[in-house]
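Sample intake sheet
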Amino acid sequence: MNTIAANKTSKMLLATEEEIFAKLVDANHPFRALDAIINFTELVRPLAALYSDLGTAGIAVEKGFKALLIQFWENYSDRDMEKCLRENIAVRWFCDFNLLEDTPDHSYFGKLRKRIGPDKLAEIFKTINEAMEEKGLFGNIFTFIDASSIITKTALWEERDRAIKDGEETLNNAVVSHYAADKDAKWGAKSKTNIWFGYKRHEAVDMRYGLIKDVMVTPANVLDFKTVKNLCPKQGMVFMDKLFDCQETYFWLKANHCAAAVIRKNNNPAKNKDQDRWRSAIRMPFEGTFSKQNKRAKYRGQLKVAFQCFAEAIVYNLKKAIKLLPMEIAAA
């Protein structure tokens, strides 16, 4: 009788918990729309291979991935995410933690990011984009390729002093990896006054709704046009700025059967100012995709920064998707 009573009590508590979540998490909450857009069970299935069946069962990978998604969604630190999971009802619901279930501490998130890695996250990014393409959010006709800076550290005066003490003339890209904490970061420059230390985030943006199609991270000293080979789509017209106006860019555009919409340099004999003004006007609404993204590196090392950029691209696309898709279409 005690067992039967306990089972009945358990079912009552479960029903009560579902009612609590239904009451406290608004029907129009963004996390409900997000849950409707993506089948997270299928999405993270490949990540199950990263875990062993032996030993004590840990936190389900689907819960962990959803928590990482919210971390980048809200730009939380690991400790902020620990607190959020413990206190935020909507986040508990989205991440599939019940009301009384223990949630992970801050150390869990770094371990999970390392376990997933940028390559696996890039595959998830691609899978999410394929799902949104099926819902008509990608046009695959016009693409905008550009780069933005990611700053690792704003000042390296101590590192410069150590370099000079060791006999170096200056702290340039040839020697900076010997002194900076981030060994992969380099100096980059957009102009004589726009100089930073860190990385570049290179992205291909679909110009139907401004969703990110592809992402690549390089040290800051890598020239923008060197990434066209990796980011160039397989069709359509590709818009780029003057830094891409070179033979290598046009080679890869032609190889991928794409039309060039590159703004010509002033010394290019083929420059047409009217045509360039049109190209600038067409791409202008999508420049915000680059300006609105995080300009600071959260981690050290190119692989970890690549993970950050893929995670932020996933979040950026999903935030736009839940605004563009009515709930009934998202759930279809």
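Comment: The radius of gyration is 24 Å. The beta strands are 142-151, 186-189, 195-206, 212-219, 237-240, 259-262.
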